[in-house]
Design a protein that fits this description.
2 domains; 5-stranded mixed β-sheet
């Protein structure tokens, strides 16, 4: 105030600058186009068909190179910090060229991922696969094999030649023996690829029919899909169990 009781001119001018600055900032924040990382996340699929479609759409983007890289920013990290609700569970190989989150173009909190040599299973692995469907309603399991699998190749030669693999690698060969036996029955020009595909379909069938998951499958709350990844093209092909 000046001595006459009127507001000081300098104070009015300063206040006007502050108000104008705030208004401009507000306009710029609301009118600017949202960045790719600030886009609202897609709703979580709640059905097997919806989850499967989301994964396959992501794989199409991986093949074409038109990736969205969804749900990978700090906002997403904060959103899932306290709780998670993945829409899919993937059992895949340890192969460094087959990262499920990348080849399905998914983000943080979207998938449970279990990786073992040649998708070998045992009680701990099976329990890990069951965790999502049995505790948080995850509607989709995918058993994902792949082209030129080193673990399957090593197991095939070990069983064929009767030469056990060293150390605990022999446990992988033992777990893959049913797939080896199926590949021998089927024959073909590339028995290792046949065995790799057999491992996928046998494992998916076992999960689909096991005591705890079968009831979920029967009522349509869960699908167990067997799929195969091409290292050459990046494409995932379904071998069995795609939900309609």
């Amino acid at each position: 105030m000046d001595r006459t009781g009127h507001p000081d001119r300098r104070a009015l001018l300063a206040g006007g600058i502050v108000v104008a600055t705030v208004a401009l900032a507000g306009c710029s924040s609301t009118s600017a186009a949202p960045s790719a990382t600030s886009a609202s996340p897609e709703a979580r699929p709640t059905t097997p068909a919806g989850a499967f479609a989301r994964l396959m759409d992501g794989n199409k983007r991986w093949v074409s190179g038109e990736l969205r890289h969804p749900d990978r920013d700090p906002d997403r990290r904060q959103l899932v910090a306290q709780a998670q609700e993945p829409f899919g569970a993937i059992l895949s190989c340890i192969d460094s060229r087959v990262p499920p989150e990348l080849l399905f173009d998914t983000g943080l909190g979207d998938l449970y991922v279990m990786r073992t040599g040649g998708e070998a299973v045992g009680p701990v692995v099976t329990g890990s696969v069951e965790y999502g469907p049995m505790t948080s309603g995850t509607p989709l399991i995918v058993v994902l094999g792949h082209q030129r699998c080193g673990a399957v190749g090593a197991a095939y030669k070990s069983i064929r030649d009767g030469k056990p693999l060293p150390g605990n690698l022999e446990a992988i060969a033992r777990a893959l023996r049913p797939a080896y036996e199926q590949a021998v029955r089927e024959g073909g020009t590339d028995p290792v690829e046949t065995m790799a595909r057999a491992q996928v379909t046998l494992t998916a069938a076992d999960l689909r029919s096991n005591r705890d998951l079968a009831p979920l499958v029967a009522k349509g709350a869960l699908a167990v899909v067997g799929a195969y990844y091409s290292l050459d093209t990046g494409k995932v092909d379904v071998l069995a169990g795609a939900p309609s």
